[in-house]
């Protein structure tokens, strides 16, 4: 009886939202989680219209004409979307450059991507805000992330920071490269490379740099609790607003970009222990946004 | 129509597949299971929060200084006095007291106390850790018994070695220079399953100071070798285990270390007998060999980010072998001398001195009467006269010679449990218990073995009621089997002008427990393998006996300080005013013929210290320290060491093409009553041989800017300048 009532309630709900408009967006989720719920909700708020939501468990796309844009969340949803024949303009969100870069060459023309990892230039700018005397910023790369070098180098050049780089050749090489790098860098910048920044290596990276009074910036929000000093990241709201912004711009095809909107997350305890003055996160984010507006 | 949010939720709820563990499949977005590495319990206090004054000598400074020994690095610490005794005995004191007895500071190597249980000193040469393996040295200037227990009376030197986790590859280094400097070092890093290791072998040698007369070397050279194996295991994401095995062997030269009761008669006074010639000629060396072994383990368990537990355990053993042959007159065995020494040791010393000068006509009774004044009795006079007669009897006999030694074994076992708990943003609690067993064995000095148990309970509460205020309350309750129970509290308050600038006020009480030698000595010379005119069952006349009821020395200290970090300028500044007072002090020189330790002395230190560390950019670092100290000491032995003005200045610069230069100046106006000024220059050139190998060549030049001896008259060099060259290959 209870099941029947629930089914009935669902039916009513589904019917209520069925009459979708042709300019509606479809969001493809891998599954439900608090993050996807928050993102969808923020997206609807940012767009000012409801969106339709399906999961990758759905066999095929609904008739595509109904959607102006399809937004995928994460790698699974993107992979699922790539298996569909539909030509609808699609924005892949919540993917990292590490994942997407090697695949971007074979991307279909209807696809654009919005990275979830922090933008290098923004991370450098944040580093400079926290360490005004920053001269040399160090990054660790692996063979797979070597391509990021140009991106970091361009950002560093633009800001007049010397970029120091060490390439890690497997887990056994980490400590050696890290020590060398810390010796010639003022801070360590986390890169989007899960072969370096993972739970196994984290202790080595954080303890080694901490013992030399060097801080880690980034690579992403989950690392802050572990002991990284600060990072920019995009909250579900930032991501939703960034998506809405791209959609308003007509979603330029075949482009990859970083989120326009972002927040800052810092570890006040680490800052205090190392004697680094730390403005609050909102102030940092605002300051960074202002700097990005400056010509 | 439903609100969008609800609609979306409804769709998810009704139409999605059954919930599974599937996620966004992305390590950066997923709920990463990242351990909190820099947890609240693991983060160290920032310099602005330390309940006292702390100087940190980091790797850059250690390298740039060119120092070959840890004590030489201590010249970079404001208020630290470094001197040498017998040439090769390094003594480090903070602020002052007796330079020869540097026994009021705790010294730790990775948490292991190298402050010796039997003789409250530190055998710096025997510390089995090469300077190349030191990560940094933290020096807490001021009493810290509240955290480290008795003997952290005037300060704590905490030497932290490089973590084996740090890859160091293979390093080979050799240093050679004037004054017989020959140092070598080799280390190898290796990884095993879940563990990292570093094995270091090293050695050092030099021939110490020179004598005034050219061509005659002062017998104070030393030569030592060390081995250190250090490993770190990762048990799981929460637990680690660090192990260290270390050993060292040091050989140090000493002159003949026995003063005969009957010294050879001064030639100008009287006709010399056969005894005088024989005793004057008998000057064998008393070189010593010290071996030091230690094993230690440190288990750390981060129970959660706000709670950690660690257990430190170590055992160490130090053996000193110093044996030679002593000669004296048979007079040292006669009953009259024993009686005189028992009645009045000063009288015995006076008689010994008169006999050095006295000719046959000299009246012993009169001489003793004049010099002993009120203490003189006819009985003493009669004994003195009898001894003088006995001397005449043996005038032309051979001396009695026997085997003598200052052999000593000292060992320590220590277990310490420490718990750190962060209750909330305002409150952090560190507490712990420790148990220590100390033992010293020496036939000569203790007539066997003395041992001791020490139980400690300690706690420190950090309370931060407000962003601008920090209060720290610490205390140490200590039960020492030989000395008794004591409690040492400390209270510190910080006011933060802003997060990087704080003003502090600290009050602390501290104690030093007398060492086994002071309190429990039973020092006499058993007569072994005797030759010459030996009486039957010879017993040496003098015995130095520790009173057994010495009290702890007590320190009360107040300091007012300011710590500022000018982050934009890269400048850190620490200023401090202090007032320290030690009561119940034992300042007596302890000789076998004059062994009367007591608690009658006191000393007071007042002054100001400053430390500036300025990193002008990554290529430049300037560092200045200064101490102004005024003292008031009741015992004249404590009135020599403290200079009124002392300090250091340093400039490190990284030049292009792999060149680094460092220039240091050290100065003290009256270091043990002698001026001390020295300028050190070090030049290093680094050649990158390949991506992972490099060769460094360095020259260290030290120039004394005055011509005084270093702390004692005999500590002189032939030349004001010293240099050594080193080559270091790492791959």
Automatic annotation (TrEMBL), chain A:
Coiled coil: none
Record's keyword annotation contains Transferase: no
Domain of life: Bacteria
Annotated signal peptide: 1-22
Membrane-crossing segments per the record: none
Keyword terms, alphabetized: Signal
Name of the protein this chain belongs to: ABC transporter substrate-binding protein
Organism for this UniProt entry: Pseudomonas abyssi
TrEMBL record, chain B:
Subcellular compartments: Cell outer membrane
Keyword Mitochondrion: no
Organism the protein comes from: Pseudomonas abyssi
Keyword Hydrolase (UniProt): no
Lineage: superkingdom: Bacteria
Membrane topology category: Multi-pass membrane protein
InterPro entries: Beta-barrel_TonB, Beta-barrel_TonB_sf, Plug_dom, Plug_dom_sf, TonB-dep_rcpt-like
Domain TonB-dependent receptor-like beta-barrel: 251-685
GO process annotations (BP): siderophore transmembrane transport
UniProt keyword terms in alphabetical order: Cell outer membrane, Membrane, Receptor, Signal, TonB box, Transmembrane, Transmembrane beta strand, Transport
Domain TonB-dependent receptor plug: 48-156
Protein name as annotated: TonB-dependent receptor
Entry's Gene Ontology molecular function annotations: siderophore uptake transmembrane transporter activity
A GO cellular-component term linked to this record: cell outer membrane
Family recorded in the similarity comment: Belongs to the TonB-dependent receptor family.
Signal peptide: 1-21
């Amino acid at each position: 009886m209870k099941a029947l009532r629930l089914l009935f309630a669902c039916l009513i709900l589904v019917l209520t939202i069925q009459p979708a408009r042709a300019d509606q967006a479809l969001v493809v989720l891998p599954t439900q989680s608090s993050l996807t719920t928050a993102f969808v909700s923020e997206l609807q708020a940012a767009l000012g219209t409801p969106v339709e939501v399906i999961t990758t468990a759905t066999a095929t796309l609904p008739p595509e004409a109904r959607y102006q844009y399809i937004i995928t969340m994460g790698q699974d949803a993107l992979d699922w979307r790539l298996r569909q024949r539909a030509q609808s303009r699609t924005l892949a969100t919540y993917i990292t450059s590490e994942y997407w870069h090697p695949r971007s060459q074979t991307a279909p023309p209807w696809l654009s991507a919005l990275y979830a990892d922090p933008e290098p230039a923004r991370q450098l700018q944040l580093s400079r805000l926290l360490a005004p005397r920053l001269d040399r910023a160090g990054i660790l790369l692996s063979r797979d992330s070597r391509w990021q070098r140009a991106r970091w180098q361009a950002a560093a050049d633009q800001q007049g920071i010397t970029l120091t780089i060490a390439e890690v050749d497997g887990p056994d090489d980490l400590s050696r490269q890290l020590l060398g790098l810390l010796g010639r860098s003022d801070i360590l910048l986390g890169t989007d490379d899960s072969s370096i920044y993972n739970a196994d290596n984290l202790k080595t990276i954080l303890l080694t740099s901490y013992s030399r009074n060097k801080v880690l910036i980034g690579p992403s929000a989950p690392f802050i609790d572990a002991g990284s000093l600060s990072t920019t990241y995009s909250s579900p709201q930032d991501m939703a607003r960034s998506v809405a912004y791209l959609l308003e711009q007509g979603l330029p095809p075949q482009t990859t970009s970083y989120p326009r909107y972002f927040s800052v997350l810092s570890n006040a305890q680490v800052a205090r222990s190392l004697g680094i003055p730390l403005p609050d996160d909102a102030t940092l984010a605002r300051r960074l946004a202002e700097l990005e507006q400056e010509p | 129509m439903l609100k969008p949010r609800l609609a979306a939720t409804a769709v998810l709820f009704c139409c999605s597949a059954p919930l599974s563990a599937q996620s966004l499949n992305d390590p950066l977005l997923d709920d990463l299971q990242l351990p909190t590495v820099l947890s609240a319990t693991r983060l160290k206090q920032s310099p602005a929060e330390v309940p006292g004054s702390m100087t940190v000598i980091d790797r850059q400074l250690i390298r740039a200084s060119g120092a070959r020994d840890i004590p030489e690095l201590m010249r970079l610490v404001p208020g630290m006095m470094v001197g040498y005794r017998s040439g090769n005995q390094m003594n480090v004191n903070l602020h002052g007291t007796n330079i020869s007895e540097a026994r009021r500071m705790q010294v730790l190597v990775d948490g292991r106390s190298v402050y010796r249980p039997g003789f409250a000193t530190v055998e710096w040469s025997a510390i089995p850790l090469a300077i190349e393996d030191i990560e940094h040295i933290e020096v807490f200037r001021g009493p810290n018994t509240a955290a480290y227990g008795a003997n952290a009376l005037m300060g704590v030197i905490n030497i932290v070695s490089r973590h084996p986790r740090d890859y160091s590859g293979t390093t080979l280094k050799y240093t050679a220079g004037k004054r017989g400097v020959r140092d070598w070092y080799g280390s190898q890093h290796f990884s095993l399953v879940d563990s990292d290791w570093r094995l270091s072998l090293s050695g050092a040698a030099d021939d110490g100071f020179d004598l005034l007369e050219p061509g005659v070397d002062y017998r104070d050279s030393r030569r030592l070798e060390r081995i250190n194996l250090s490993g770190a295991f990762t048990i799981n994401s929460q637990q680690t285990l660090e192990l260290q095995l270390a050993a060292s062997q040091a050989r140090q030269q000493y002159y003949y270390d026995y003063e005969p009761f009957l010294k050879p008669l001064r030639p100008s006074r009287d006709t010399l007998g056969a005894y005088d010639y024989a005793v004057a000629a008998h000057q064998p060396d008393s070189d010593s060999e010290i071996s030091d072994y230690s094993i230690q383990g440190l288990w750390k368990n981060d129970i959660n980010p706000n709670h950690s537990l660690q257990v430190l355990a170590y055992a160490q053993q130090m053996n000193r072998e110093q044996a030679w042959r002593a000669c004296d007159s048979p007079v040292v065995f006669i009953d009259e001398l024993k009686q005189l020494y028992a009645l009045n040791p000063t009288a015995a010393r006076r008689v010994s001195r008169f006999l050095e000068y006295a000719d046959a006509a000299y009246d012993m009774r009169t001489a003793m009467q004049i010099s002993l004044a009120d203490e003189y009795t006819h009985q003493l006079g009669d004994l003195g006269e009898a001894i003088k007669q006995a001397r005449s009897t043996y005038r032309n006999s051979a001396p009695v010679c026997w085997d003598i030694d200052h052999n000593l074994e000292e060992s320590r076992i220590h277990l310490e449990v420490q718990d750190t708990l962060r209750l909330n943003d305002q409150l952090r609690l560190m507490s712990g218990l420790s148990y220590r067993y100390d033992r010293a064995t020496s036939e000569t000095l203790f007539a066997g073995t003395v041992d001791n148990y020490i139980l400690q309970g300690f706690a420190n509460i950090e309370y931060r009621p407000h962003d601008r205020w920090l209060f720290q309350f610490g205390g140490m309750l200590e039960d020492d089997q030989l000395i008794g129970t004591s409690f040492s509290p400390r209270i510190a308050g910080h006011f933060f002008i802003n997060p990087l600038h704080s003003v502090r006020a600290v009050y602390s009480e501290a104690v030093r427990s007398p060492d086994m030698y002071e309190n429990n000595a039973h020092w006499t010379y058993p007569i072994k393998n005797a030759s010459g005119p030996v009486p039957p069952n010879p017993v040496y006349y003098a015995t130095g006996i520790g009173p057994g009821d010495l009290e702890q020395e007590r320190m009360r200290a107040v300091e007012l300080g300011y710590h500022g970090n000018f982050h934009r300028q890269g400048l850190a500044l620490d200023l401090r005013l202090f007032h320290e007072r030690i009561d119940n002090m034992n300042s007596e020189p302890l000789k076998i013929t004059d062994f009367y330790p007591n608690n009658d002395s006191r000393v007071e230190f007042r002054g100001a210290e400053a430390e500036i560390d300025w990193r002008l950019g990554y290529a430049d670092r300037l560092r200045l320290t200064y101490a102004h100290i005024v003292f008031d000491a009741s015992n004249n032995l404590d009135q020599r060491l403290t200079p009124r003005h002392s300090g250091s200045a340093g400039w490190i610069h990284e030049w292009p093409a792999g060149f680094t230069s460092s220039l240091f100046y050290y100065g003290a106006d009256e270091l043990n009553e002698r001026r001390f000024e020295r300028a050190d220059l070090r030049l290093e050139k680094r050649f990158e041989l390949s991506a992972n190998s490099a060769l460094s060549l360095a020259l260290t030049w030290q120039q004394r800017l005055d011509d005084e001896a270093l702390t004692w008259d005999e500590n002189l060099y032939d030349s004001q300048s010293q240099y050594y060259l080193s080559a270091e290959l790492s791959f």
